Amino acid sequence: MTPGSEPRHAAHESVEERVAEEVVEELVGEFADDLDRPGIRQPEEADEPFPSLSEQISEQLGGVRGLIESSVPVLAFVVLNVLLGSAGLDLGKKTALYWAIAGSVGSALAIGVYRLTRKQPIRHAVNGLVGIAIGAYLAWRTGDAKNFYLPGILLTLGQVVVLIVSVAVRRPVIGYVWGVLANGGKHDWFDNPRLFRTFQWLTLLWSASLFIRAGVQGWLYLADQANAIGVVRILISWPIYAATFAFTAWAVHRVTSAQQHEAAQEHEAAQEHEAAQEHEAAQEDGTAQEHGTAQAEA
Known about the structure:
It contains 9 helices and no strands. The protein has helices spanning 5-36, 53-61, 63-84, 93-117, 123-142, 150-168, 173-182, 193-222, 226-297. The chain has 2 domains: 55-145, no CATH class; 149-279, no CATH class. Helices cover 80% and strands 0% of the residues. By secondary structure, it is mainly alpha-helical. The longest helix is centred in the last third of the chain and has 72 residues, at 226-297.
C-alpha cells in the first residue's frame, strides 16, 4: 500500500460506514414507529401488574356507579308501583304493575344503551337486565308485584346452599374466588393451613350474609309486602353486600401480610445464622493455622 492510496481507502470506508449507519437508523426508526401504533404492545408493557384484591372486587361490583345502576331498575319499579297504585293515583293494581314493569325494564335498557353508545363495558347492565326481565315476566304472568323479586330471592338462597356445601366438603368457594381474582388463577392456598381456615370461615360469613338478605326479603314476600321488598333490596342488601366484600378483602390481606412478614423474618434469621456459622468456621480455621504455625516453629 502506497502512502498516497491510504487516505483514499480510509475515505472510501468512512462513506460506506456512514451509509450503513443511515440505513440502520432508518430501520430502527420505522420499527419504533410500528411499536407506537395502536394495537401493538411494546415488550415492557407485555406484563402488566396484576390488580389487587380490592381493585378486582371493585371491578366485579362495577364500582359505585355499578351499584347505583343496578339499583335504578328496582327503584323505578318500586316508585312507579307505589305512585300509580292504591297509595298514589290508584290506577288499579294491574295497571300500576304494568307501568312499573315497563319503567323497570325501560330503565335497564336505557342504561345498557347509554353505556353502549359511549363504548363502555355493558356486562353489568346485561346481567342486571336478565334478572329484571325474568322478574318482570313472572310479575306480568301472575299479576302480582311481589313475584318481580322472586328470582332474586331464590337465587340468593341457592347461593347460600352452595356456600355451605363447599365448606362441608372442605372446598370453600371464597378461596376459589380469591385464587381467580387475586392469585393469578393459582390455588396454592390449599397447602396453607392458616389461609385455608380463613377461607372456610369467610365462606360461612358470606352464607350468613346472603341468608339474612334472602330471609328478610322472603319474609316480606310471604307477607305480600312487595314494595317493602324493593326498599329492603336497595337500602339494606347492597350495604351488607359491600361490607362483606370489604371485610373479606381486609381478612385475606391481614393473613397474607402476616405470613409475608413472618417469612421475611425467618429469611433474615437464617441469613444471620449462616453468617454466624461462617464467622465461627473462619475463627476455627484461623486458630488451627496459628496452632500449626506454632508447632512448626517449635
